[in-house]
TrEMBL record:
GO terms for molecular function: methyl indole-3-acetate esterase activity; methyl jasmonate esterase activity; methyl salicylate esterase activity. Keywords: Hydrolase. The keyword ATP-binding does not apply. The lineage of its organism: Archaea, Methanobacteriati, Methanobacteriota, Stenosarchaea group, Halobacteria. It comes from Halarchaeum acidiphilum MH1-52-1. It comes from the Archaea. Pfam families: Abhydrolase_6 (PF12697). The keyword Disulfide bond does not apply. One of its GO terms (biological process) is jasmonic acid metabolic process. Residues 11-238 form the AB hydrolase-1 domain. This is EstC protein.
Length: 245
């Protein structure tokens, strides 16, 4: 049995677009082996959640994050990956007293009123590979581009797993702005785990967002957009370091 640490942290892990709770499976194991509590779940219309994609809003995502925070115990750190940087910011706005820190893992880091689409970087691997189904309100990444966009440094078996599990992304939440205030969002300590080889949110863009919304700590991984699959132990290390604000 792994001894439980006295400085137990509850990590609430928010997956990004197209993904689900499944993407954290190796990071979850690494954090739990160190005595931490870990909460993962599918955002509405992601993973195995059955919410109709056309009905989903950004508020629904934030509601789900807040519900997970409300169930958490001990010191609580909210981690948002990619699109869920916006979700994490919204949850920090609503639950500032329940969070010890927020960590943005190669994530979109908003200012007041920003949407994820507002924050998208130009000239990325997504260019020409993002397909929108206007009738259904869904976006997808071309199958042949998934590795370039998300999984550049992931082992073949992790790529195969991800290819089998990614889902189309509801578009409405991506275009919704998130309201943030200094009184709430602004008082939750923030850290950022940057990924230097990310082809979807390039490192220069990650750093530009941090200039607009400063953070207290930065941890660097030499990884692409999905370090939870390519470097799970190192990602767990980075989250621990980032959470110690």
């Amino acid at each position: 049995m792994v001894p439980v640490r006295r400085d137990v942290t509850t990590f609430v892990l928010l997956h990004g677009a197209y993904h689900g709770a499944w993407c954290w499976y190796r990071v979850r194991d690494a954090l739990e082996s160190r005595g931490h509590a870990v909460v993962t779940f599918d955002l509405p219309a992601h993973g195995i959640d059955t919410t109709p994609p056309g009905s989903v809003t950004l508020d629904d995502y934030v509601d789900a994050a807040c519900a997970a925070i409300d169930r958490a115990a001990d010191e609580t750190v909210l981690v948002g990956h990619s699109m869920s940087g916006v979700v994490a910011a919204g949850a920090a706005e609503r639950r500032p007293d329940a969070l010890d820190a927020t960590v943005y893992l190669t994530a979109y880091l908003p200012t007041d009123g920003d949407s994820m689409l507002d924050l998208r970087a130009p000239d990325t691997a997504l260019d020409g590979n993002f397909v929108v189904d206007e009738d259904r309100g869904l976006g997808t990444v071309r199958e042949g581009a998934l590795d370039d966009v998300f999984y550049g440094d992931c082992p073949p078996e992790e790529r195969a797993l991800a290819h089998s599990l990614v889902r189309a992304e509801p578009m409405a939440p991506l275009s919704s702005g998130i309201p943030l205030t200094d009184a709430n969002f602004g008082r939750v300590p923030r850290a950022y785990v940057e990924c230097t080889a990310d082809a979807t949110i390039p490192i220069a863009h990650q750093r530009a967002m941090r200039e607009a919304t400063p953070v207290e700590r930065v941890v660097t991984l030499d990884a692409s957009h999905s370090p939870f699959l390519s470097l799970p132990v190192e990602t767990a290390d980075a989250l621990e370091r980032a959470a110690a604000i």
